[in-house]
Specification:
single chain; mainly beta; Immunoglobulin-like; 10-stranded mixed β-sheet; 18 strands
């Protein structure tokens, strides 16, 4: 999900290798997330969507997904970057946010090094925050002094060559099938938490610039169970066949993401008559047990 917001100019500010990832909105500053592939999570759309098969969730083990946050600053004019994000449900618990400068320095979007290439705590300050009661996280990177008029310098070729920070998502094994998200705050929330924002140096001075926000889609599904009611029946096969017929005529399938993934048994991205037939055969097999 991608949003465009115009952030509010900050009145008071709180000081505070990965594979390259290029924002799809390369000309517009903003933030994006990437869910990483694992035994539990299937990553798609360049990490913008992760699919979780409920059959793989375990009651006696941690069901953890790793995620990364990126900042895109194509003009390299930002001096203050501060994404904030929340989980759409407490059954996707946000945890383990990384502050790349505390306690030890690691590679991140604005990592600093000495002449020998060693990571150092230099002129930039970072602050990672978490509020478990609200399932909220935030991260800030800025110049340590407000008197400086120099933008943040990316560690890599661009600001999104490396993650800004990383965090984990702990998935509740009792989570229902559905379409969920970890989303950036685009406006002040119910308790007055500031939205995600980027402040840059321009000809007009220090200003808060319009930004894009690309959230992380989390799709939880159970193979064969298209309607997500916890049972596999002929109705699931009918739903898959109906979706196939609609798609064949150029119409929308009418299925949500989790339903499409549950019906798409071969994982080719399409729901076909073959998938519908496989669901019906699976139901028939279950009926004989």
């Amino acid at each position: 999900m991608k949003k465009i917001i115009s952030a509010v100019t900050a009145a008071t500010l709180i000081c505070a290798g990965a594979l390259p990832f290029t924002s799809s909105a390369a000309e517009t500053p903003g933030f994006s997330m990437k869910g990483l592939e694992s035994q539990l999570a299937e990553s798609a759309e360049n990490g913008a969507t992760i699919y979780i098969n409920r059959n793989l969730l375990k009651d006696d083990a941690s069901n953890t997904i790793n995620a990364e946050v990126y900042v895109s600053d194509p003009d390299k004019t930002a001096w203050y970057v501060s994404p904030k994000w929340k989980g759409s449900t407490t059954q996707l618990k946000l945890t383990n946010i990384l502050d790349p400068k505390d306690p030890e320095n690691v590679a991140f979007a604005y990592a600093e090094t000495d002449e020998d290439g060693n990571f150092i705590k230099g002129k930039y300050s970072t602050l990672a925050s978490i509020d478990e009661s609200r399932n909220y996280m935030g991260f800030t990177c800025l110049y340590s002094t407000f008197t400086s008029s120099t933008p943040l310098v990316p560690y890599g070729e661009s600001s999104d060559s490396y993650p800004l920070t990383t965090f984990d998502i702990e998935v509740d094994p009792d989570i229902a099938d559905g379409d969920y998200s970890v989303y950036f705050l685009s406006e002040e929330d119910e308790i007055g938490q500031r939205p995600s924002e980027i402040n840059s140096y321009t000809e007009a001075g220090q200003v808060s610039v319009p930004i894009t926000l690309s959230d992380l889609n989390v799709v939880v599904y159970t193979p064969y169970d298209v309607d997500g009611n916890g049972e596999v029946s002929s109705a699931d096969a009918s739903a898959a066949l109906s979706a196939y017929a609609k798609a064949s005529s150029g119409a929308d399938t009418g299925l949500k993401k989790y339903q499409s993934r549950a019906a798409d048994l071969d994982g080719d991205g399409d729901v076909t008559s073959i998938d519908a037939s496989a669901i019906l055969q699976y139901y028939a097999k279950l009926s004989t047990l």
